[in-house]
Automatic annotation (TrEMBL):
<dbReference type="GO" id="GO:0006850">
    <property type="term" value="P:pyruvate import into mitochondria"/>
</dbReference>
<keyword id="KW-0496">Mitochondrion</keyword>
<comment type="function">
    <text>Mediates the uptake of pyruvate into mitochondria.</text>
</comment>
<keyword id="KW-0999">Mitochondrion inner membrane</keyword>
<keyword id="KW-0812">Transmembrane</keyword>
<dbReference type="Pfam" id="PF03650">
    <property type="entry name" value="MPC"/>
</dbReference>
<keyword id="KW-1133">Transmembrane helix</keyword>
<dbReference type="InterPro" id="IPR005336">
    <property type="entry name" value="MPC"/>
</dbReference>
<comment type="similarity">
    <text>Belongs to the mitochondrial pyruvate carrier (MPC) (TC 2.A.105) family.</text>
</comment>
<keyword id="KW-0472">Membrane</keyword>
<keyword id="KW-0813">Transport</keyword>
<dbReference type="GO" id="GO:0005743">
    <property type="term" value="C:mitochondrial inner membrane"/>
</dbReference>
<protein>
    <recommendedName>
        <fullName>Mitochondrial pyruvate carrier</fullName>
    </recommendedName>
</protein>
Amino acid sequence: MSVIYKNSMNVIGKFVPEKLQPLWKHPAGPQTIFFWAPAFKWGLVIAGLGDLQRPANKISVGQSCALGITGLIWTRYSLVITPRNWNLFSVNLFVAFTAIYQITRALRYQRQQAALEAAKIIPSDAAH
């Protein structure tokens, strides 16, 4: 770790209130990548929540599957690493849930469209 980074964290640490010192000094606290990587990953959750308004025919099932699987894998991983990273756990759980919900919406839409297509084909065949 660079000397500049360590020195800046020491200076900032002096201004952190006493009540927040345990969080500040935690092995997965704000002085480590274990804190900041999940913090920025919340952007994926926010984007996923924004996509809830997206029409179901515009949802990428492949992309949602990739996000869902990644979320589930990292949710599990966050509980087996040391230190346990509850921030990483929660963000990945939310990523997985939003992706699974989007997959459900897309598949439901595709099933409805297939049923509509089948309903159009059956009456025309019956008329002949």
